[in-house]
Amino acid sequence: MDAARAEALLDFLALADRLKTVERRGRVPLPGGSTRRENSAEHCWTLALIALLLHREVAREIDLARALSMIAVHDLVEIEAGDTYAYDPAACATQAEREAAAAGVVFGALPPDLGARLRALWEEFEAGESAEARFAMGCDRMQGFLQNVLSDGQGWKEHGVRRADTRPRMDPARAVDPAFERLIGALYARAADGGMLPE
Amino acid sequence: MDAARAEALLDFLALADRLKTVERRGRVPLPGGSTRRENSAEHCWTLALIALLLHREVAREIDLARALSMIAVHDLVEIEAGDTYAYDPAACATQAEREAAAAGVVFGALPPDLGARLRALWEEFEAGESAEARFAMGCDRMQGFLQNVLSDGQGWKEHGVRRADTRPRMDPARAVDPAFERLIGALYARAADGGMLPE
């Protein structure tokens, strides 16, 4: 690694650090009973942990390195585009365009070979076609739902989200594999038992 | 996956979520110029990104799935043991004992097969002998140093850390590979240029 490449990598890591300041709607329970909004960087760590726990629980063989690599980069465009709330139709309508522009900025900040490699991982995640991309999508959506359950449905309540609103997002995640169906079914049961997600 | 296993995994993920409330001494720059302490979950995400960027930059072949898996679990014991500041000798003296006890609680919360698998990854990281463990150690220590550079050395200044204090921790990271030597050398230069780390 030459000096210029080292400086470029450090500059990129300084940019990537901003993912820690992108706030999601889901909330993190704090000691003492309050909550705060989750940020996208810690969300990505939870996805990695879920992927590590589940990659041998599913029927299709998962290339764990590829799944974890996709997970590490899948939200980097939010540094420029911000987080898009799944239950905000206006924001979702412009999401693809905003994120494509952001990808040029974020992945363009890397040396070209690394930028192309990380961009390809992000595109694979977005396309949602490979076994690893579908697996990562299932982990991503399960995690968002889980975070709401962990925080007594506060994120849902703030935005008036009802059970039916979650189905277009969660049904594809349940369909990834029977293990996802089981886990997400159990999360819906916890949400119902806790009165977090009205019918 | 049967119902009991699903419930056990969800309970574990609820426990693991607490890593987002474990604060490190390094600080995250915020929009507007202030900073806040970094938490261990977002630290783990940054390590994953660093590992993804560097695994092909080093001479030894790295099994990326194993490195990223180790990175995802390496700080889980902090849920019970708390973060141990690298420049606090009293805390470091009791760290191994506290973390071994914590490992029993944290990995013991998983179904036995998964608990054993995650514990083995943590133990491999702690032993620091495999190529992937040494690579992950290098990423971990580089990230801690980087976080201080990103926040104008605030964490160091608060605790009176000088350049020589960092060497027992950073010299083994520099020795992992010439790429680490290059990157960490560049970080020391940035710290020196910014007056962040007195001689």
Automatic annotation (TrEMBL), chains A, B:
Annotated keywords: Hydrolase, Metal-binding
Taxonomy, superkingdom: Bacteria
One GO cellular component term noted in the UniProt record for this chain: cytoplasm
Single Gene Ontology MF annotation: 5'-deoxynucleotidase activity
Tagged with keyword Metal-binding: yes
Pfam families referenced in this protein's UniProt entry, alphabetically: HD_3
Ranges of residues in domain HD: 16-165
Keyword Ubl conjugation attributed: no
UniProt-recorded name of the protein: HD domain-containing protein
Top-level taxonomy: Bacteria, Pseudomonadati, Pseudomonadota, Alphaproteobacteria, Acetobacterales
